[in-house]
Amino acid sequence: MPTTTLAIIRQKVAKKLYAGRFPIVSVTTSDSDSTTLIIDTALSPAAQIEDFIETWIIIAEQATAVDSETNINEGGQFSATDTTLTVSDNTKFTVGDGIQFSATATPAGEICRVTVVDGGGADLTIVRGIQSTTATTHENADNVFIIGPAVQEIARVTDVAFDGSNSKLTVAPGFTASPVSGTDYEIHYKFYPQHIRDKINEILENLRRPIYLALTLVTDGDMESTGTSDWTAAATTGTAPTLAKSTTSGRVLHGRRALSITANSDATNSFARSASIDVSENRNVFVSADVYITAGDKAKITLRDVTNGADIETAESVATGFVHFEFTAVVPADCEDIQVWLESPVASDVTYWSSVQLLFTNRQVYDYPTALEWSEDFDRIFY
């Protein structure tokens, strides 16, 4: 199924609603050095103040933080409660700047806002833990980065100034940090952006797409559980395989995810073992499965007699791509429990199992898949 983001959907809706307007989606071309300004050369050609007054601005994407080329210079740790930050060069900052810290080239965690730049020293007065971040302790000499407002911050245009590359919109309320160059934003000329988002979500919540779910006695046989706790990883020799649920396109045939089994390089006969299923002897069972086999690898499915520790029936393939396994078998004498083993038999093999079905051939009533909640969720039943 095609994928997109809510921001892209909102922007497409905005372009339909405000067709003929310009700009609708744009990118700031300069640091604003103010929490209440948007600077963008794309604003200049419009040259009509009335086009922008009382429009809404929403931050569509937070620009990548930029290294200020200065560092924390506290002489020790900068505590989580301290609001006066000493840096090696405070001339790199202006009031309103958002700042973030890291010992590496990639900042993360707490974001602060500069409120005072000490003109005669090296100090910054800051507000701690803005943009839903938490104030934490930072190490001396950590790099200080400059970062802009957070995604989905919204403000309204109160004034406009056209001046070529310095064309700007004045907004209120101010953003949590001054917009920096490269900040993606949207102009909504009539509707409040959050209302558009709410309507999109309302539509998305009511969209339905058909999926095929396996009717099976195997717990999580339809692979709809997000985790792998219903499956036990094991190997005849070596390290047990890695189990995961994959949603990768081209690896899932039915439903929303597949069980991936990645064999380790030191292992043989790596497999995922299902929970045991109670049976009575001499009963006929139907077993099938759909699996994606990585090029050059092998897949195998085994119906296992747990009581007697023996294989009842197996099927295997070395074909590349999706393969369907299917067989019937008779439960042996004295067998009380069976399992299905899904296998990546050879070292380093990777297989993706979309579903596994186990049904009694003479049974007519089954519980429906737990992924279904309401009767209207059912469309058709196939056999």
What do these coordinates show?
Strand 19 (299-305) and strand 20 form a beta hairpin. Helix 1 packs across helix 2 (193-206). With 383 residues, the protein is mainly beta. The protein is elongated and about 90 Å long. It is built from two helices and 23 strands. The longest helix is centred in the middle third of the chain and has 14 residues, at 193-206. The protein folds into three domains: 6-63 and 150-203, Elongation Factor Tu (Ef-tu), domain 3 (Beta Barrel), CATH 2.40.30; 66-147, Beta Barrel (Elongation Factor Tu (Ef-tu), domain 3); 232-377, Jelly Rolls (Sandwich), CATH 2.60.120.260. The strands form four sheets. Strands 1-12-3-10-11-2 form a six-stranded antiparallel β-sheet. A six-stranded antiparallel β-sheet has the order 4-9-6-7-8-5, with no helix packed on it. The model has no long low-confidence stretch (mean pLDDT 91).
Fold topology:
Blueprint: H1 6-17, E1 25-27, E2 37-39, E3 56-61, E4 66-71, E5 84-86, E6 98-102, E7 111-117, E8 123-130, E9 143-147, E10 154-161, E11 168-172, E12 184-188, H2 193-206, E13 232-237, E14 242-246, E15 258-262, E16 268-273, E17 277-278, E18 284-293, E19 299-305, E20 310-317, E21 321-330, E22 337-344, E23 350-360
Antiparallel strand pairs: 1-12, 2-11, 3-10, 3-12, 4-9, 5-8, 6-7, 6-9, 7-8, 10-11, 13-16, 14-15, 15-23, 16-22, 17-22, 18-21, 18-23, 19-20, 19-22
Protein name: Ubiquitin-activating enzyme E1 FCCH domain-containing protein
Organism: marine sediment metagenome
